[in-house]
């Protein structure tokens, strides 16, 4: 643990559970479309897939009757390809409706159904958000003045008459206890009474003994969950970041028009009433050495900036004068990282606050971007205050975490805006290091005796080869995959249980590689993830998008190549 003293510790509590957005689409029951011809299409925007990526301009042709039921059926068919679930058709007066739930938890934009060659009559379609999407949020509620963690293991006496004159013991039951004295922020959204409720209800709570979490962005990658991308931007993921990991992403404009950007969204509960600062690493790409950056809050349906300021922290280039709530960045290097910070100078406040977001636009202009505009970004950080600190990788925060019962709670009247809070907890489960559960794979080094011809099998793993001359095999230890365009291969393990919406950490070591275009994808359930491949040890976070599955599959993609793994580990990530 890197904790130096108790002041580095915070008491956290889940303040919002993770949930997906539920949207109700209502269409007039009878003839909702004008001058309808079978085959006319509608356009669906703001579709969010299980990876959190957003796409616009999805067309879907309508065949059959000009009725609300049929139009909803067509919409449901399109959304199902993005792993939405839908209720059966319901009736509300002159309306037919269905409720749609997207696969990704977290804040997402509202679905849009707009005219294509098919045109709705005025007022014939209504879209309502029944449940807003939100991420699971741990909010700091108390600031420690002291804290302790103790762990113990009982010993079982296994001494026998054959013991050599000494008592012999084996490991028995393990347990842990945590206690803390803290100052509770009584202005916090979570009241002191919540701690009393935990004790009174007798339910197990999540407890963390952790480094201070400075970075409120909980995704080390600058893509996927929490990141929203204009349709007209192409992504190249798993590029090397400033710290030698493969979390950077290149964003390239693919059309010569529009105001095209990528933005990061953080739940408003973490920053409301506070002054936030974003920082991010940026590089130029191709012939493009410029970008624009800005920070906004969304109040109701209005996106607004609150007196932002920006500056360069390190690297090449410079940050220019604010224009339209954005700041130009020019002179970027294509080989050296530039770190930029952008801050609000007033606390986040307003009616109907929804989120805060960092907007980034590739290129030297906004609104007339071209296909020459592209940038690479990495390692985004959001923290409270007006000064950025060193980047903190959210997946590398030292902590111990487990389920516990509240033994005692003491709250004393404090001074000004704080109360004095003391509590102790007794563990009811295993104590997980750094928020990771136990190993899910039975054979992490892929060792054993292989068998089979086109299929190779060892303990816990199978290599499926499309042809006998596909040279994939087990190297005892290690697994070697080799394929061509006409002879694909995959590496699969079964007997594990992976649950929808839970996050998992995959760590793997590539010991050999050929062909720069070698690519593998990992299939848990929808979505698929493409793996970064270099000779090194990699760690990636994966979130299950579909239903429970019992296997992990690494599968070759496209061009020929080969890759050898010497170690693979999979663990559940506990929030």
Q: What key attributes describe this structure?
A:
seven-stranded antiparallel β-sheet, mainly beta, Jelly Rolls, 4% helix, 2 helices, 4 domains, Factor Xa Inhibitor, globular, 575 residues
Describe this structure as you would to a colleague.
The two termini are 18 Å apart. The N terminus is likely disordered. Helices cover 4% and strands 50% of the residues. The protein is mainly beta.
CATH topology call of the largest domain? Jelly Rolls
3D shape = globular
Give the full name of the CATH homologous superfamily of the largest domain: Galactose-binding domain-like
How many runs of DSSP E, i.e. beta strands? 44
Given helix and strand content, the structural type is mainly beta
Q: How many domains is the backbone divided into? A: 4
Topology:
Layout: E1 10-16, E2 20-28, E3 33-34, E4 41-45, E5 47-48, E6 54-55, E7 58-61, H1 68-80, E8 85-86, E9 90-92, E10 95-105, E11 112-115, E12 119-120, E13 125-131, E14 137-157, E15 169-185, H2 193-201, E16 205-210, E17 227-229, E18 233-239, E19 248-253, E20 262-267, E21 276-284, E22 291-299, E23 302-304, E24 309-314, E25 318-319, E26 327-330, E27 338-343, E28 353-362, E29 374-384, E30 399-412, E31 418-427, E32 432-433, E33 436-439, E34 455-458, E35 461-465, E36 473-474, E37 479-483, E38 489-498, E39 503-514, E40 520-523, E41 529-530, E42 537-543, E43 549-556, E44 561-573
Antiparallel strand pairs: 1-14, 2-10, 2-13, 3-12, 4-7, 4-11, 5-6, 8-10, 9-10, 14-15, 15-31, 16-30, 17-20, 18-19, 19-29, 20-28, 21-27, 21-29, 22-23, 22-26, 22-28, 24-27, 25-26, 30-31, 30-32, 33-44, 34-35, 35-38, 36-37, 37-44, 38-43, 39-42, 39-44, 40-41, 40-43
């Amino acid at each position: 643990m890197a904790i130096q003293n108790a002041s580095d510790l915070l008491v956290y509590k889940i303040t919002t559970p993770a949930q997906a957005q539920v949207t109700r689409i209502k269409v007039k029951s009878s003839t909702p479309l004008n001058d309808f011809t079978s085959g006319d299409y509608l356009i669906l925007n703001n579709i969010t897939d299980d990876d959190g990526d957003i796409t616009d301009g999805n067309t879907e042709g309508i065949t059959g009757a000009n009725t609300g039921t049929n139009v909803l059926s067509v919409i449901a068919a399109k959304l199902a390809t993005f792993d939405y679930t839908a209720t059966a058709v319901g009736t509300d007066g002159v309306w037919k409706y269905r409720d749609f739930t997207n696969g990704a938890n977290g804040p997402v934009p509202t679905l849009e159904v707009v005219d294509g060659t098919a045109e709705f009559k005025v007022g014939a379609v209504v879209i309502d958000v029944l449940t807003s999407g939100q991420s699971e949020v741990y909010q700091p509620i108390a600031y420690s003045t002291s804290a302790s963690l103790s762990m113990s293991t009982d010993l079982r006496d296994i001494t026998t008459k054959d013991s050599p004159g000494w008592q012999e013991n084996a490991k028995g039951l393990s347990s842990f206890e945590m206690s803390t004295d803290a100052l509770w922020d009584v202005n916090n959204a979570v009241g002191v009474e919540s701690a009393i409720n935990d004790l009174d209800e007798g339910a197990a709570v999540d407890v963390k003994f952790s480094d201070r979490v400075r970075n409120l962005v909980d995704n080390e990658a600058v893509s996927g969950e929490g990141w929203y991308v204009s349709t007209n931007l192409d992504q190249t993921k798993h590029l090397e970041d400033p710290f030698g990991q493969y979390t950077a992403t290149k964003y390239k404009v693919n059309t010569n028009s529009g105001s095209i950007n990528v933005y990061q969204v953080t739940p408003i509960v973490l920053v409301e009433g506070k002054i936030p600062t974003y920082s991010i690493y940026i590089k130029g790409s191709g012939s493009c050495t410029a970008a624009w950056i800005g920070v906004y809050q969304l109040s109701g349906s209005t996106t607004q900036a609150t007196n932002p300021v920006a500056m360069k922290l390190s690297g090449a280039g410079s940050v220019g004068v604010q224009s339209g709530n954005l700041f130009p960045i020019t002179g970027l290097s294509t080989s050296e990282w530039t770190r930029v910070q952008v801050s609000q100078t007033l606390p986040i406040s307003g009616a109907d606050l929804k989120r805060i977001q960092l907007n980034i636009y590739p290129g030297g202009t906004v609104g007339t971007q071209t296909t020459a505009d592209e940038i690479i970004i990495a390692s985004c950080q959001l923290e409270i205050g007006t000064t950025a600190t060193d980047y903190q990788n959210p997946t590398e925060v030292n902590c111990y975490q487990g389920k516990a019962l509240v033994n005692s709670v003491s709250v004393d009247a404090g001074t000004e805006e704080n109360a004095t809070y003391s509590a102790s907890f007794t563990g009811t489960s295993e104590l997980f290091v750094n928020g990771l559960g136990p190993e899910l794979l039975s054979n992490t080094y892929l060792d054993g005796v292989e068998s089979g011809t086109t299929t190779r099998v060892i303990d816990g793993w199978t290599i499926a080869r499309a042809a006998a001359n596909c040279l994939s095999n087990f190297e005892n230890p290690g697994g070697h995959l080799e394929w061509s365009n006409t002879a694909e291969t995959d590496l699969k393990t079964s007997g594990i249980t992976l649950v929808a919406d839970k996050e998992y950490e995959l760590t793997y070591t590539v010991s050999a590689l050929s062909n720069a275009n070698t690519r593998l994808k990992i299939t848990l359930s929808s979505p698929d993830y493409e793996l970064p491949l270099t000779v090194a040890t990699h760690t990636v976070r994966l979130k299950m998008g579909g239903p429970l599955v019992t296997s992990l599959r690494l599968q070759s993609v496209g061009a020929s190549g080969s890759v050898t793994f010497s170690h693979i580990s999979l663990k559940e990530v506990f929030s």
